[in-house]
């Protein structure tokens, strides 16, 4: 097809779509798209396409898909390849991904785009690289990695769990080394990092791997914050609540998660306040504070709202007991971190015979360091894992510091009064 025929087709496509819409903003955008395309102003064209796909007027209609299929795909090699992937993803947003046929459509289009990006990269760089370097270079290209991550994510929407999980796993396994903290780590922009962590989150959610979901979810929040800041955007409230819900559930059910500071300090947790999931906000707060009474109250509410909590109730009761022990340790002055087994049992509600096992569990989790005096039936703590404190816990720490300061001042005065002759002799 000649360039003239392509231009003619594009004009016809845009004119047809323009005639089918009654929205004034979209009509103006169609005129812009045609103008920028004819003048080959690819940057301006890209900006107009971004505006089109962000427009609420284009959502929920087939026009997004038709713009991509009939317009963008004809000259995609002229545009930033990562943005082309975003345009495709935006065109797929209105699909119901609970239907297998829609997932297959997405996988097919992403696979085709992946091949086009690789082909375009090879054409563009074939004369400037040695063959060996070119192969490595294409695998490290941001657009190649980005579209592969989106393909892996779409595989996870499929109902064919075994086949598609394997396909997604293979893609992520081939990419993991590029994101690991190593000497040869490839530096990607925040958008690509965010896609990597989001895809991992989706995989770990399916596998109910709460520990890895939590860590990757926090990394995703960090990466998406950078993306949104540069684009002057933010996650909408529904997206915030959905992500925060999954993060909070993972924090509760992760058997290696006993520090919730990053989640508690993040603004996303506030999205649950005043919502139908406020019980979850309270549950996390009381767990972090080691508050048995408050935690039990909100867990009773949560079990009705989220059956998964009821299925893990025994573990959650063990977790709050551990957090309660950490709270008791923090209440002790720094100069006397000695706790009797009876004191631990009374504070945490753990049976006296189980206290030693509870302490050993905390040792194995790396939450505390110290030793057990079996003769005295006591725990001597030499180190406590740092954690985020609420205002009441900060007040306790403040009182400890004041007491320590007073003790140091008292010791200094005693030395001044009683040690004069010693200092003079020196």
TrEMBL record:
This is 26S proteasome regulatory subunit Rpn9p. GO terms for cellular component: cytosol; nucleus; proteasome regulatory particle, lid subcomplex. The keyword Nucleotide-binding does not apply. The keyword Nucleotide-binding does not apply. Belongs to the proteasome subunit S11 family. It comes from [Candida] railenensis. Residues 212-386 form the PCI domain. SMART domains: PINT (SM00088). GO terms for biological process: ubiquitin-dependent protein catabolic process. One of its GO terms (molecular function) is structural molecule activity. Keywords: Proteasome.
